[in-house]
Fold this protein.
Amino acid sequence: MAESYEPPFSLTPAILDLVAQIAEEAGRLGLGRAGAIAPRLRRENRIRSIQASLAIENNSLSLEQVTAVVAGKRILGPAREVLEVKNAFSAYEKLTEWKPHSSRDLLAAHGILMKGLAEFPGQYRKGAVGIAKGDRIVHLAPPASRVPVLMKDLLAWLRRTKVHPLVASCVFHYELEFIHPFDDGNGRIGRLWQTLILSHWKAPLAWLPVEPVIRERQAAYDEALAASDRAGQSTPFLVFLLTALRDAMLELTPTDQVSDQVAALLKHLGNRTLGATELMAAMGLNHRPTFRKNYLTPALEGGWIERTLPDTPNSPRQKYRKR
């Protein structure tokens, strides 16, 4: 494969329209700001993403069980499925440390996702692999000997491409599934890596729960992959994934992001620990009820800040700091 490899896909009117819709929705939600999604919702959304991504791979744990595992609690469930949750949470938590075009980072991510689950976590496969539906092979991946160069060229394309990150993330997702570079875990690493690519476009998309939408439409997800295989290009898969991304974003509401008042409080708080009176003085405010209603309470409820004395919220010694 040449150095200038370009994955085959077409920028159809439907795809361009979906990109425009998603970009417009991102602007409405203020996703250009790094802190656009409340910390409380970030964790909830991440747990939803993990539960759905693993459910696609036949993990049977419920959202409540996954939440408990992430919180460090013991649950009744298959040990392998519990380990899948722990691994996935560890991998998603490291998103900010990885570069989308880095093969080293991709292999490290797979190593975390599949530790104790696959025979060769963090390594490209050494043998042939295919995807079966019942007793029928629906996709036969390229020979193992070609995987390193195929992935090298795909990652090089991702690094240099000028196409919109929304499109690039979907193309990469499809191409990775087509190459099927690992013995196991290809689906979950594909979804993880798409999230990583999107987060480099808009940082808050690291917490966009698109996986639950895909899980609800799993038959369509599989068919979009098959349709792209038949077409010899990823265009059908792009339409499916961009639609899922748009719909996941539509489920977010303005209350999920930081308000102008909370943003102002966070700016003046900085890395300090301040009491309410000190905060009001720093912000030039003098009406305590308004301060509590419009600034302090929303910041606390959204998880943006925390009390230094959580067990005694009305203590005169109470102070606040960023989470």
